[in-house]
Design a protein that fits this description.
Blueprint: E1 3-4, E2 7-8, H1 18-32, H2 41-50, H3 61-79, H4 83-95, E3 102-104, E4 113-115, H5 124-143, E5 148-150, E6 159-161, H6 174-192
Antiparallel strand pairs: 1-2, 3-4, 5-6
Helix pairs in contact: 1-3, 1-5, 3-4, 3-5, 4-5
InterPro entries: ABATE, ABATE_dom_sf, Znf_CGNR
Organism: Streptomyces roseolilacinus
Protein name: Zinc finger CGNR domain-containing protein
Amino acid sequence: MRYIPGVYADDRSSRHSAHAVARRTEALVNALTRDDPSPTPEAIAALLREHGENEPVAVSGRDVAEMRAAARALRAVFAADGLDAAVAELNRLLARGPGPLRLTSHGGGSPWHPHLDGSDDAPWGEWLLASSCLCLTVLVWDRQRPPGGVCAAPGCGNVYLALGSGVPRRYCSRRCATRERVAAHRRARAGGDR
């Protein structure tokens, strides 16, 4: 692997960073907690590939159901009101975790990285919950802030990561923030025209 200051030419190691795993967590929680449309195994497998999961990525209907349960539990961390509540949710989830902290390279197929799941062949739901709790814990530890939140835009409900500095985010995207600003502007104009 050729090293370029600040960037790895081969992203094998960067896909295991806390930020990369947190972004995968964000995407999976949003995909798996939607009720309409319900995610298919193929869609979840594609999302896992998009976030750097090595082949083969075989996801069954049962895997999706277990991952949905994990995603709903993780959603509570994002929905928590403040740092102490987010930490309480993370601690609750970590306490029910299946395995001790360990390092793995998946038999040399990836760089060394931490796992909290029971084994390298753990079910997808166990893996999602363990890896997500670990990365969110690292983010809280590193930043001393909640790892993110739930979008304030009515009807959205997506979770988002708060990785930047400055004013805490309220929306999952610029699109939701802009839509809310336009709606507030319209309400203000309508109220002033009376």
